[in-house]
Write a structure and sequence with these properties.
This protein is α/β, with parallel strands linked by helices. 40% of the residues lie in helices and 15% in strands.
């Protein structure tokens, strides 16, 4: 048992007796955090900092899987939630908060004319697909990116156990920045696609004309264009990636930053399509839960009032530039590279003749976690990340990148690792 992570490992052993995998989220589990060199449980977080069950402090660049944009325990959001708590959490009737959040979304997001709420991003993507099928009277869906855990999507991945073949056969994948791959699907199944749902950007930037081309092909086919902006919404621009890139979809899925990490998601879009939400069953007991709606009002109002998006971009650009400089300076460009939008960047590793990308990533996580940086290889920037946080991250990279180079060049990865290497789940991006 690791001394640094003793309490975390004790809690994990206890949790595994009652919780499959020991936690509720794959991306927060031992499948993503290598056992023996990682924390598994947090106790609190503030601003850009997180403390684990053993009392270790980290600068958190995971930011709760990009759900936090303002920073942990943002004072405006927390004050709004505390005030609402005195009035209640859930009621037998809707509250005015539903109207306020809907109006803010319509004001901020270009595609939004109407809004309906869920709790997770998967609620929003599943709702968008269902209403698109109702609107078009068709069944097939084309996907590009990661769209959650529901059968309609996850059946198209390697994690498809428990999903009926009939459901799996209705979902088709196409390649990002490859219009021909989408056009081929339309040709193979003419008049059968209800929707094209995609992340407008994740790892790679859209090639010139790609998003506009997707929109043209989709509408020409009679399908509904859905942008999954669960991450990019309120991070790339106030109105999301659709505002940044100037391409407006028919429907948009929102979540994560909508309420700075409180459980809330939304489907927004064209009024004529959204009108079918009165007939399509998309209804939740907790859909109007008031604490998350109060958090959303505070978060979205702050987004309007302050340069949140510009702060994310500016801080993220410093990280992106600094990381690229260190990749070059430390000679690891043969197996490491960066990608993504400044507010949501990726440090990616590639296989080498001596070791796999998973071994390299495991060593990376082992070393950065030991130095107080919490990251799964992404930089999910928040407004709370300071210049001092960025400087600390880059100093850690100056220490860790030479270790990665040595392990790869010497072909001695097993000597450097103090744990079993991570294993791939499935590629979502």
């Amino acid at each position: 048992m690791s001394e640094r992570y003793r309490r975390s490992e004790e809690l994990l052993a206890r949790a595994e007796r009652t919780i499959p995998l020991g936690t509720q989220t794959f991306s927060k589990s031992k499948t993503q955090f290598p056992y023996g060199v990682s924390p598994f449980y947090a106790t609190r977080a503030q601003g850009s900092r997180l403390w684990d069950a053993d009392g270790n402090e980290y600068i958190d660049f995971s930011s709760s899987l990009a759900a936090v944009t303002l920073g942990y325990n943002d004072p405006d959001v927390t004050a709004a939630v505390r005030a609402q708590l005195d009035n209640g959490v859930i009621f037998s009737l809707p509250t005015e908060l539903e109207l306020q959040v809907s109006e803010l979304l319509v004001e901020l997001v270009p595609s939004a004319e109407r809004a309906r709420f869920g709790k997770n991003g998967s609620d929003a993507t599943a709702g968008a697909v269902r209403v698109a099928r109702a609107f078009t009277g068709r069944d097939r869906v084309a996907v590009c990116g990661y769209h959650g855990w529901q059968d309609w999507y996850i059946g198209s991945t390697a994690r498809n156990k428990g999903v009926p073949e009939g459901t799996r056969s209705m979902t088709h994948r196409f390649d990002y920045n490859n219009l021909e791959s989408l056009d081929r699907l339309f040709r193979e199944h003419p008049g059968e696609f209800a929707a094209v749902i995609m992340e407008p950007m994740n790892v790679a930037e859209p090639a010139p004309g790609f998003l506009a081309g997707v929109a043209e092909l989709t509408r020409k086919s009679g399908a509904v264009l859905v942008f999954d902006e669960v991450i990019t919404g309120f991070r790339f621009a106030n109105g999301g990636a659709q505002e940044l890139f100037g391409v407006t979809p028919d429907l948009t899925c929102l979540g994560k930053g909508i309420a700075n990490g409180y459980p809330l998601s939304a489907v927004v879009g064209r009024a004529d399509i959204m009108a079918l939400m009165e007939e399509v069953f998309f209804s939740f007991t907790m859909g109007g839960e008031a604490l998350s709606l109060a958090a959303a009002v505070a978060a979205l109002t702050k987004l309007k009032r302050e340069p949140v998006v510009e702060t994310l971009r500016r801080t993220g650009q410093k990280i992106l530039d600094g990381t690229r400089e260190r990749i070059a300076a430390h000679g690891i460009g043969g197996f490491a590279r960066t990608s993504g939008h400044p507010s949501w960047t990726f440090l990616q590793f590639a296989d080498t003749p001596s070791c796999s990308q998973w071994e390299i990533k495991t060593l990376f996580m082992q070393e950065v976690l030991a130095r107080g940086i919490l990251s799964l290889g992404t930089h999910n920037v928040t407004c709370a990340h300071s210049d001092a946080d960025v400087a600390k991250l880059l100093r850690v990279y100056d220490e860790v990148f030479p270790i990665l180079r040595e392990a790869v060049e010497e072909g001695a990865m097993k000597q450097y690792l103090r744990c079993a290497p991570l294993q791939p789940l499935f590629r979502v991006r």
